[in-house]
Write a structure and sequence with these properties.
Largest sheet: 5 strands, parallel
Structural class: alpha/beta
Strand content: 5-15%
Radius of gyration: 18 Å
Order of helices and strands: EHEHEHEHHHHHEHHH
Length: about 250
Amino acid sequence: MGCEIDFLIIGAQKCGTTSLYNYLIQHPQVVPARTKEVHYFDLNFDKGISWYQDQFHPVDRQNKMLAGEASPYYIFHPLVAKRVQQILPKVKIIILLRNPVERGISHYYHEVRLGVEDKGIEEAIASEPTRLAGETEKIVENPNYYSFNHQHYTYLSRGIYLDQIKNWMNFFPKQQILIIKSEDLYNHPPTILNQVCNFLEIPPYQLPDYGKYNAGEYPPIDPAMYQRLQTYFQPHNQNLENYLNTTLNW
């Protein structure tokens, strides 16, 4: 059964996916999903393709309307890229990447607000290897296995972007993937929205307002800890810069 979804914003989490999605669905040619985060390819895959199609409003193809969704766990879940490729081989994929130190800190406070993280930030980050031990392997071995820890306690792992991007590049050609720096979205939203419109082959569109959506506030971080996180991510960021042939300034 065919499924006509034109674009997926796959992550990363806490990188501006909600803002970009909310900008995009204001475009007259974009039909929003019934909810922003459908989570079909990661958490609801067992519900089947008909359930997925039901998450979207009818799309008028005569008038070149597009449909898409934004589920930021997609980029990180080890099984999603292959599943998407099998069902939506022509889909366009949008990836937002933020300084991984800022992303990890924002992610931590997001989990605190959800009520699922009770450790202090240093302890939570230090606990990540123990909490994650064996979880990715279990997901890969058993597609029905749900790992709470893999979804919630991955403050460092989700910021190692290169592994995730390479996985998606294994299943999709480069011309179907658009990678955007979150900082560019935050600083120049009209420019980035037009870049996305160009990628989706729809006319540029100017919004009356570019508000920030789902932006969490958090207290100042200990500078020594911030520096340790920068040191941790530095080689990963360098590898990513080399792979993408760009300068990220993180």
